Amino acid sequence: MPIGVFARRSGLTSSALRFYADSGLLRPAETDPVSGYRYYRPDQVARAVALRRLRELAMPLTAVGAVLAAGPEDASRLIDEHLARILGEAMAARHKAALLKSSLADVPSRPIAALKGPVLADAVEQVLTATVREPGLPVLGGLRLEVTPEAVTLTATDRYRLSTRTLVPAEPATATWAGTVGGEELRTAAAEIRRSPLVRIEATPHAIRLRRTARTARTAGEDQEGQEDLYCGLLTEEFPDYRLMLASLGEATTRVTVSKDVFLRTLEGHPGERITLRLTDHGTHVLPPGDGHPESPLPATVTGRALSISFELTTLHPAVSTALGPDVMLDLRGTDRPATIRSADRGDLTTVAMPIKQEDRPHDRHSHDRHSHGPRPDHGGHRPRRHGGPGG
To answer: Left, alpha or beta for 308 (phi > 0: left; psi -120 to 50: alpha)?
Structure first.
């Protein structure tokens, strides 16, 4: 086929095809010796598309050639290595940019808190499960950090989930401070934070500075302390008023206590994208995704009102998997109210998640009518099957 047709099928321009032919990555099947016109075979389209996608990843020509010449496993490994380099370079660039902006402001960093590295890393990864990447709303991908002399609180919300954890500082904080930190930068920094016994958090006008204490042995029995700093940028958008939402939750009408491991196995083995729990005085059952299958019992302790409630697995599983301790407690307030998910014996990590509308089931209608209270809210927005989110 002529170069113009091949260009349209592959998504590459004619000039790009000529460049890749000259570089040896994608030579034409035939070149007319008189006119110089280039022709390609249909079976070359797949290679051309792969080449284009690799270049969209900012992969250099030599690396592209290596990927195209490799088998599937080696090609995947080469792509992963390239992406790791890009992410590392991006993180380094963000750190340098934050440092530069701080120096331009001519304001010294201010110490705000000190935390144990592994504890802080765990909290960051747990709370960030409630974030989302949404164009135009970067704050929904951020983590709210609030420091008082007594506690450090980390909070995130995507408006349908909210996760918050409170930590006790390793040293008494000397100031009160609050800011919203870029979630992706914190997620990347968590691996480094985890390896540090102590992390000192300092605030600058545009970022937080994470001063890590690293130990490197010089001689047997002798340690030397050094510091390597990480920077995570601050977001300027206003964070949702999550404290008002938490204060307005109201009392739970149904409480469920269940083994975390058993609940996780149930969620991971469930075949559908959503899960419905039927909670009665006689026990807890997981409803199948369609009719014609028996309900599955879930060993749990239930107190309060009988209820049938549904969640998306992508909402419920992270909340359960990050809960602390061997048992998980669900405080439920009805089919259209936020549910609180936390450890049964520790209260420093709490997740609030919204249930979703249940599928119509003939055997559910009586229970639903009996336990519904008041009119249903309007389900407008980009997630029509959910009820109004915890963020309002």
So the answer is: beta
